[in-house]
Design a protein that fits this description.
Elements (H helix, E strand, L loop, with lengths): L19 H30 L3 H27 L10 H13 L5 H33 L2 H40 L1
This protein binds fe (ii) ion (FE2) (2 copies).
One fe (ii) ion (FE2) binds next to α2, α4 and α5.
Length: 183
Amino acid sequence: MSAIPGKAPSVKLPPQIESGSELLLEELGRLLTVEETLAKVVLPELLRELQDKELLTAVDDHLQETQGHAGRVKEAFLAIGAMPAGRPALGLEGLRVEHKAFAPQVVPGARSVVHCAAAMGVEHYEINAYDSAIGLARALGAQEVERLLRANLDQEVAALQTLGRHASRLARLAVEERTVSQV
Ligand SMILES: [Fe+2]
Ligand SMILES: [Fe+2]
């Protein structure tokens, strides 16, 4: 195998996660970090940026739900006799960093479109994580975990649909405003 010049050879550790139940704990840990980071950092940060009143209300409503999501993920840990413990969620951090770098490049009149798209990106990320964890819980026969996670998933899907409606409205608004200013 050819080594990359200037790069130390990578040390391959053996896989640490050996069973489906260990994998479920990892996924729950990632979900816990995601929900807590969204509730405490990402959504409050986004709310401070929002100018559009309707989008602000939608995001604020989902912030209230998100606080409940973290609680349900903790309950899911307890349902399988484990202590709630967060795991890294690098995908969420990536979405956040990307948005913080990109949004200021957009004129204020069109920035709501970008904020809404970022919020939708987070919902897609959550939905993917819940789908995966629910599949594992179902395969393991962990019915209470599945029920708790599905309750969160339903709210993520509803939030995504609501944000999708705002995205269409905001896109039209941004295009119309731009058209008016060009006349
Ligand atoms: Fe959530
Ligand atoms: Fe969400």
